[in-house]
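Exercise 3.2. Students should predict the tertiary structure of the chain below and write it as structure tokens, then compare their answer with the key that follows.

Predict this chain's 3D structure.
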Amino acid sequence: MANNDNERNVPTGKALIDLCAAELFARKAEDVVLLELSSVSDVCDSFLIATCRSEAQMRAILQGLQRALRDVGIKPIGNDSGEGARWAVLDLGELMVHLFEENHRAHFSLERLYEDAPRTVLNPEDYASASATGESQDNGFI
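Answer key:
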């Protein structure tokens, strides 16, 4: 039987970014920034960067993201996080989602490393209706 992954209507580009951003905001991630890397790097098209208040929140966000992605037929290429992690990365090919605890975000400063990349600060209000359905209401860390 043929692989149906290519035939599915899975979100890509802006739709994928919107899906991930809605999940980040639903789980109370802070300071969410989109870096458009296509003009400055071959790593991927975009980084979605967010701050978490704790390791527990970071785990809840990762689990929620993976569930939301699985629901639309996307399996991440990689997930770099572990017990005691202060920085987690979810690799979706064209998009990489970076979650940091505040101190580590300032230390690694991806925004500074890619300062030539177009940057957009995302606002929770823009994603409120998209995240108001399903399990996204469960913060998972409170």
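Discussion points: The chain has one domain: 10-122. The first helix runs from residue 13 to 26.
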